[in-house]
Amino acid sequence: MPDTLIQMRGITKNFPGVLALNNVDFTLHAGEIQALMGENGAGKSTLVKVLTGAEAFETGEILLGDSPTPIINHSPQEAQARGISTVYQEVNLCPNLTVAENLFVGRHPGRAGLINRREMNRRARQIMESISVDIDVERPLEGYSIAVQQMVAIGRAVDISANVLILDEPTSSLNEHEVVTLFNLMRKLRDDGLGIIFITHFLDQVYEVCDKITVLRNGALVGEYAIENLSRKDLVSAMLGRAFDDLAAIHHEANVDVESAPVVDAEQLSVRGGVRPFDLEVFKGEVVGLAGLLGSGRTEVARAIYGADSPSGGSLTVEGKRIGHSPIDSMRAGMAFCPESRKDEGCVQDLSVRENIILAEQTKRGAFRLMSRTEQEKIAREYVDLLEIKTASLETPISQLSGGNQQKVIVARWLATNPDFLILDEPTRGIDVGTKAEIQKLCVDLADDGMAVLFISSEIDEMLRTCDRVGIMRDLHKVGEVSGDEMTSSNIMSMIAGSEQPVAAETAESPETVGWAQ
User: Fold this and answer.
1) CA 218, CA 24: separation in Å to the nearest integer?
2) Fewer beta carbons within 10 angstroms: which end of the chain, N or C?
3) Which helix (H) or strand (E) covers residue 483, if one does?
4) In whole angstroms, what is the distance from residue 43 CA to residue 25 CA?
5) What is the pLDDT of residues 120-145, one digit of tens each?
């Protein structure tokens, strides 16, 4: 295997009204893990799509190995034939098929149209053993966790093409243990001589597993750096083009009148087969967080309050009044819900930015009170400007926007309904540090203006900056709540892990208290 696997020189790519890539160079060597970093809209995904043949480019050239002859991949299949495979954030496998069938979709061993299942299963076991994953390959894929499905996707990619592996946000849905397993696999593949392109927004993960960093900004190359030569602070500055202290400036101190009625009051609310009975109050001008591991019940609480899942017990009042248990009743009562999955439950991919923004307000008004085109454009323009959404026009399909800008469109959709109570479920997942700070600051500003906010996040530091109180979820049960001096990362982590009693701030951060977490 040659030392240089890929050279991309002077790559330029235009979309209507947007220069996505401007004379970008990129080089990947064998036996290295290279992070591709930048804000949403910086050009990371476009560069990968150009490399893998998903997008054409106007100028520049791509060289493979030590060949002096430029190549052009016209499709991902052609890129795979040349040894380049991609594993995306959303695992694109078939959950109803077995692990072995997923590994060999489209290339089953056999003859005369008949599949040799014994040989397929044998080779599937070899593939999974080669990446140190011990699972039953004859079991349906849907029976395994997202992390294992991710490993199966990687095993398939490595078996199809064994030179270059592109991992696009592979850790966004994994817990800490699963991330460790993935990183061990990445190191093994690197030591076997593969070149790995790692796209992520988690800075700590970059410094844990990568050898080099390439930074893009506004479609242009900022630089390529050895990991030991670029501090986290300098990396963020390179991504944003400015010194970054926005996160440090974010802090919210609610001025809540607890004698007044809460905006939302859930008492022993539960969902059959889902979240167990819980109590939750959120007051005007307050940001309340929900912390817990994936599957702990955070999203289930939000869905129960919003009426997306029908409660089986308990009561819910909004502004002191009982409401029906459906999303449209919740909307009309002044509630808004930004869901966790912007792809599956948020964006309507075939609609424009304008249409996505006005969707909730039009639904709230009903089919007999249609908004005029002028009103739609006015509302959409207001929130595009307010949230600094990067789009060529209001009529650009939302599918053409970066992930962070899609997230802003979903937030804009619900702000356009002028809610009294806003639920944000993982609003900063999978977006860059700059956009993340903007959304956190927006959340704080909305509370300062009197809105009640429920904020759900997997990042404890983010919740400490943004929230006034934090409820702790574990095993579909609300196990406690912290506020004031008790609201520390060590207390939250301890309660998530199973210690029910928070401790005072001065002892919470002592080595004896948090040694296990360090």
Assistant:
1) 11
2) C
3) strand 477-483
4) 12
5) 999 999 988 887 788 899 999 888 87
Quote the CA–CA distance of 35 and 386 in Å, as a whole number. 31
Give the predicted TM-score (pTM) of the model: 0.61
Pair 262, 283: CB distance under 8 Å = yes
The alpha carbon dihedral of 259, 264, 270, 273 has a sign of: negative
CA-to-CA distance for 515 and 239, rounded, in angstroms? 33
- The 10s digit of each residue's pLDDT in 365-412 is 887 888 999 999 999 999 898 888 888 889 999 888 877 788 889 888
Whether 421 and 452 have beta carbons less than 8 Å apart is answered as: yes
44 close to 36: Cβ distance less than 8 angstroms: yes
Are 380 and 394 contacting, i.e. CB atoms less than 8 angstroms apart? Answer: yes
> Taking 70 as the threshold, does the pLDDT of residue 256 lie above it?
no
Mean pLDDT calculated for residue range 1-16: 86
Alpha-carbon distance of 192 to 33, in angstroms, equals 12
Write out the DSSP string of 10-52.
EEEEEETTEEEEEEEEEEEETTEEEEEE--TTSSHHHHHHHHH
Cα separation of 217 and 215, whole Å? 7
Q: How far apart are the first and last CA of the chain?
A: 40
Place of tokens 């356009």: 416
Distance (Å, whole) CA 512 – CA 287? 31
DSSP letters of 154-173? HHHHHHH-SSEEEEESTTTT
Strand 195-199 and strand 164-168: the pairing is: parallel
Measured in whole angstroms, how far is the alpha carbon of residue 185 from the centre of its chain?
A: 21
CA dist., res. 180 & res. 176, Å (int): 6
What CA–CA distance (Å, rounded) separates 43 from 211? 21
Going by their DSSP bridges, the two strands 195-199 and 32-37 should be labelled as parallel
User: Parallel, antiparallel, or unpaired for β 4-15 and 59-64?
Assistant: antiparallel
Q: What is the mean pLDDT of residues 230-252?
A: 69
pLDDT tens-place string over residues 457-468: 878 888 888 899
73-92 burial code (b ≥16 CB/10 A, e <16): beebeebbebbbbbbbbebe
* Residues of the chain above pLDDT 90, percent: 31
Q: What is the DSSP string of 192-229?
A: TT-EEEEE-S-HHHHHHH-SEEEEEETTEEEEEEEGGG
Is the distance from CB of 234 to CB of 228 less than 8 angstroms? no
Cα dihedral 47→52→57→60 (10° resolution): 80
Backbone angles phi, psi at 251, to 5 degrees: -160, 140
Burial class of 1 by CB neighbour count within 10 A (0 to 12, 13 to 18, 19+):
middle
